């Protein structure tokens, strides 16, 4: 008689539901580790401590993000905003299966336990990172704590995203470049600061289109952000202004000597596509299409920054 130890279909479905709840397939934020690695001085790049810090930081950040989105879904199911924002009309642009609380695959209690467990996982691994990092300044440790606490409180507890803080907190992915770099080197170069700003902006240039698409459901749920507190016309202007922040940040970095002028040339193809993104979202009202293009540009921007780092170190 053989013993079948394969997971049952119910177990596989449950695990898949937790993967979707934690958005574990959304890897964009974790690409920051490659940017940091490419920016390090050659002798430090493949050092064992360097790799350990980056791996543990990313693994901890995965827990922080999973806790954030899981608890966000808990709030979304309780106030009804997810049910209003995820409708059949969104089609393939918004997959309902990504919301296991809406589909009934998980209960609210299960999602809350998962969220708090993920937060504990992130806190534990980031504590280890701070202990083993070559340069563990107090201000960096406090910054890590701030990221952990504010992200978990994004739509739960203090509900920062419901109380005027959504756009501010959505730029924190940029700190996933700055924090590990400073932990490894003890400094923040102009190049790394600029790349942290860009990485955060790229995240924001995805979410602002989601916010505009979800504005009616968010208003009914009591969420106070720029989209719900302004008119559609005013928010379109805010979106355009947010797009302009990217070239402005690069221009300032070039003007103060933080990066060479060729840095802008590397980003030029991405900016051309940014125009298409704005045209789709602001001009044509295809908000979810613009959002999807923003996700692609976030991913395509990473190899551009990798190339910039290699050139900055070796040219």
Low-confidence stretches: 1-6
Secondary structure class reads mainly alpha
On the 0-100 scale, what is the average pLDDT? 90
- What is the number of helical segments per DSSP (H or I, 4+ residues)? 16
Apparent shape = globular
Helix content range: over 70%
Number of strands: 0
Q: What is the rounded Rg?
A: 20 Å
**Strand-residue fraction?**
under 5%
The main β sheet shows up as: none
* End-to-end gap: 66 Å
Taken in chain order, the helices and strands follow as: HHHHHHHHHHHHHHHH
Task: Please provide a brief summary of the model.
By secondary structure, the chain is mostly helical. It contains 16 helices and no strands.
Q: Can you lay out the helices and strands and say which pair or pack?
A:
Blueprint: H1 9-21, H2 32-39, H3 42-45, H4 48-79, H5 81-85, H6 100-103, H7 108-132, H8 138-152, H9 166-169, H10 175-185, H11 190-213, H12 215-221, H13 226-229, H14 232-255, H15 262-283, H16 287-314
Helix pairs in contact: 2-10, 2-11, 2-16, 4-7, 4-10, 7-8, 8-10, 10-11, 11-14, 11-16, 14-15, 15-16
Structure report:
The protein is an all-alpha fold. Helices cover 73% and strands 0% of the residues. α2 (32-39) runs antiparallel to α11 (190-213), α11 (190-213) packs antiparallel against α14 and α14 runs antiparallel to α15 (262-283). The longest helix has 32 residues, at 48-79. Mean pLDDT is 90; it is low at 1-6.
Keywords:
mainly alpha, single chain, 315 residues, globular
